[in-house]
Amino acid sequence: MIGIELRTIAPEELPEAIALELSCYPPEAAATLEGFRHRIRLYPEYFWSAWADGRLVGIVNGVRTSQEECGDELKGAHGDDPEGHSFCVLTVAVDANNRRRGIGGMLLRKLIGQCRSAYLKSVSLMCESHLIGFYEQQGFVLHGQSASKHGGIVWYEMSLDLHTMEHLTE
């Protein structure tokens, strides 16, 4: 996409990132600045940003984990595992004026590429029902409704397997 710069976010840009987060998620479901600081401190290579004309228009981030899904304990309480074999996407946010331009997909592919480079086993996330098709287009598989009630929202669990071993038989 012309005019979009993708890069990992810098710590001094976190106030812009949290403002974008709060514009995309209800306050009860949005990450906190403390949560973003935790993610950038432990997982800076997984905190991607999209910029257009010097303005932040998208972010994607999350945490490594030993779990196969993104439970509520990974949101805010930092139940993550820096040595974990999986990645839980906690934020995908694109500025309302820049949606449907492919920015979310570009950011997600960057994040997935980083997970592949780190030889992680899988990427998981929870999303609202209207976003299931978007994530399916990115290769994620729907597992059904989540038990999570985070932010009073009905969430759906999805995952993408990475680096699967295929056994050859003769």
UniProtKB/TrEMBL annotation:
Pfam name, any one: Acetyltransf_1
Highest taxon above the source species: Bacteria
Keywords, in A-Z order: Acyltransferase, Transferase
Domain N-acetyltransferase: residue ranges: 4-163
Keyword Transferase: yes
PANTHER family noted in UniProt: SEROTONIN N-ACETYLTRANSFERASE
Name of the molecule in the record: GNAT superfamily N-acetyltransferase
Organism: Paenibacillus harenae
